[in-house]
Amino acid sequence: DYEFIDNNARFGYEQSRLSSIDSSRDLYYPKVIFSLDFNKKGFGDILVVFVPLFLMTFLGLFSLMLNAKGFGEREMSMSIGALSGLVVYQFVLRTISPGIGFVTLGDKMYVFLLSLTFCVALINIGISEYVKRYNMSLRLLNVIKTGFFYFFLLLILFFVYRLLP
Prior knowledge:
Layout: E1 2-16, E2 27-40, H1 44-62, H2 73-96, H3 105-133, H4 138-163
Antiparallel strand pairs: 1-2
Helix pairs in contact: 1-2, 1-3, 2-3, 3-4
């Protein structure tokens, strides 16, 4: 996120006074000051990485907020579409991310949001299968889905809070 602008080096001698009475006891030792100037690039690159990740994740999360009618084909298609969008977006992230050997903040956020969207897809599939097998009231089903939605929102807030410095 930072761009290198300039560097500078100054050198000289530093004086240490060992005695306030006798100036012949002063010590002089070499000293070098290095300075590096960096400029913050801005939010442009960050937005390119994080906004699509959060948009696709929230698309999957909002599938939990739809009223349960029928067997949940809309909910499953929304969550699986968000999941496949996140998987495809990995190829975009590989071209944007620098070629380094350690895990970046974007990688951690991607893995977290991908696993969260995968859990949402599994919940939608499980709920639709449960509705097909057992006759469940739609009101109870909507309460369960809303509970999962709020739980995942709190989980995202907690993870982002712990992840950011």
